[in-house]
Automatic annotation (TrEMBL):
Its EC number is 4.1.2.13. NCBIfam families: cbbA (TIGR00167), fruc_bis_ald (TIGR01859). This is Class II fructose-1,6-bisphosphate aldolase. Its cofactor is Zn(2+). It comes from the Bacteria. One of its GO terms (molecular function) is fructose-bisphosphate aldolase activity. InterPro entries: Aldolase_TIM, Class_II_FBP_aldolase, FBA_II, Fruc_bis_ald_class-2. The keyword Repressor does not apply. The keyword Transcription regulation does not apply. Pfam families: F_bP_aldolase (PF01116). It comes from Marinitoga aeolica. SUPFAM superfamilies: Aldolase. Keywords: Lyase, Metal-binding, Zinc.
């Protein structure tokens, strides 16, 4: 099953109540690992690239980067017996979003969440019009990803307002919505215990009835943090969203689970461990071996947790 519209994957996930990992890549290696993990687990996969990744892949030219990513992902998708989609993550610039659409991305995100509600809605609506005309589906973000820190009430202000979510989706016709429910990006998500607002997710789901996206969903897997730190990394205080919370979030209505940090940490853990144990090695095909193994492990574990394992059969 080849390259598909992200909407096809997410509507299936919504209908059957499971989550699909949306995994960020910057290069060929991570794409290999994701496709390998997807095939091994018989899971649909969503590959995503940030604007920064587009620029990086094109060696400074983001349009070229977008074209390279589409060619790469299509090549692998055509040979894999699982549904594969390519998504632009956190599109903020009109030029990048248009470049992704023109290059053939399956979907784009317009992240105008730093703007006031009305403005976010206006910008999102504009992008939806352009993207839908090209047959590309759209994700938008509402509220801000600040995280719920301990007892911090202030953070409530930036979490999604379910009533606003309803108006936003009706008004913009966006295909998937990323509501801010307490997570944040990177390896330092919570100062106290990890927690997200389940009731808010349920309410948003009830109101918008579309696939929902959880950003900042890395677990910051202790096993790999430990390996990386044993071999020289310093991630002091890193804390992510535990698997049980992700499972519960999916039950509440989350379908797309954005993960970047976990792949980066697993990779660097394997890379550091290998290089420390093999000081004479300088062939990337060899020194990426353990990094590959750990990254695939983090992805396959994630597919089990979200319930996407085995679901490629539904397409
Ligand atoms: O939300 C993300 C990409 O959009 C990634 O989140 P993490 O930093 O938790 O991996
Ligand atoms: O949410 C953002 C992703 O983790 C990618 O970020 P990036 O801009 O470092 O590529
Ligand atoms: Zn944002
Ligand atoms: Zn994100």
């Amino acid at each position: 099953m080849p390259y598909v519209d992200t909407k096809v994957i997410l509507e299936n996930a919504d209908k059957h109540g499971y989550g699909v990992p949306a995994l960020n890549i910057n290069n060929l290696e991570f794409l290999h690992y994701i496709i390998e993990a997807g095939i091994k687990m018989n899971s649909p996969v969503i590959i995503e690239t940030s604007q920064g990744a587009m620029k990086y892949a094109g060696n400074g030219d983001f349009r070229k980067g977008a074209e390279i990513f589409v060619k790469m992902v299509r090549t692998f998708a055509d040979e894999a017996n699982i549904p594969v989609a390519l998504h632009l993550d956190h599109g903020k610039s009109f030029e990048y979003i248009v470049a992704a659409i023109k290059a053939g991305y399956s979907s784009v995100m317009i992240d105008a969440s730093e703007h006031p509600f009305e403005e976010n809605m206006k910008i999102t609506k504009e992008i939806v019009k352009i993207a839908h005309a090209a047959g590309v589906s759209v994700e938008a973000e509402l509220g801000q990803l600040a995280g719920i820190e301990d007892e911090a009430v202030a953070a409530e202000n930036v979490l999604v307002d379910p009533e606003e979510a309803k108006i936003f989706v009706e008004e913009t016709d966006v295909d998937f919505l990323a509501p801010a429910v307490g997570t944040s990006h990177g390896a330092f998500k919570f100062k106290g215990a990890a927690k997200i607002d389940y009731d808010r997710i349920k309410k948003v789901k009830e109101y918008v009835k579309r696939p929902l996206v959880l950003h900042g969903a890395s677990s910051v897997v202790p096993e790999f943090v430990e390996i990386a730190e044993k071999h020289g990394a310093d991630f002091g205080g890193a804390k992510g969203v535990p698997a049980e919370i992700l499972k519960e979030a999916v039950k509440c209505g989350i379908n797309k689970v954005n993960t970047d940090t976990d792949l980066r940490i697993a990779f660097v853990a394997g890379l550091r461990e290998f290089l420390n144990g093999n000081p004479k090695e300088f062939d990337p095909r060899k020194y990426f071996k353990l990094a590959r193994e750990y990254t695939i492990k983090v992805i396959t574990d994630r597919m089990e947790v979200l319930g996407s394992a085995g679901k490629a059969d539904l397409f």
